[in-house]
Amino acid sequence: MRGSTFIAGALAFLTTTIASPVQDRAYCIGQWEAQEIVNKIISIFGHQPGANATAEALLADDFTEHSDSIHALEGQPLTGASTTANKQEWIKGMLGEPPTLNITTLYVGATGCNKIIWYWQFNSVARATYRVRGFNLFTLNSQCQIQELDLEFNSIAWGLDDGELQCGNRSAKA
User: Fold this and answer.
1) Which fold has domain 29-162?
2) Does the keyword Signal apply (predicted)?
């Protein structure tokens, strides 16, 4: 009798925890949700139909992005400072550039209740001489929107592919 009471109590706790809304920090995103968020980001990069609406819904109003890789390409100090002023600037920048296609997801993982790590490879940046690999760490708010994006990637390969960096007389091997 006592064992069945314990089991019933444990099942009630698990059912309540699993059914908790996203707003409750007792709820942690799962692998499926992490993959869905990454798929939405990929659709934005590729300028899929509805990309602007997807970005508006996916990014929090107080969205920030940080990347020393981007700062390095821009010749800015590597301070970890934000790379975009706000959500609207990020969306305008993403959708104002040519689409990024041929993205390979190497790993997606939900971590800590509100974070997603995405390890990726872009196979066709500009001239596509070099593959570019990198990591995005997404931090989600209580509405499951991306509040912060920390991004680092092989900025040398990116810069060589899109002409931001010149290789000079040296030849890198693809």
Assistant:
1) Nuclear Transport Factor 2; Chain: A, (3.10.450)
2) yes
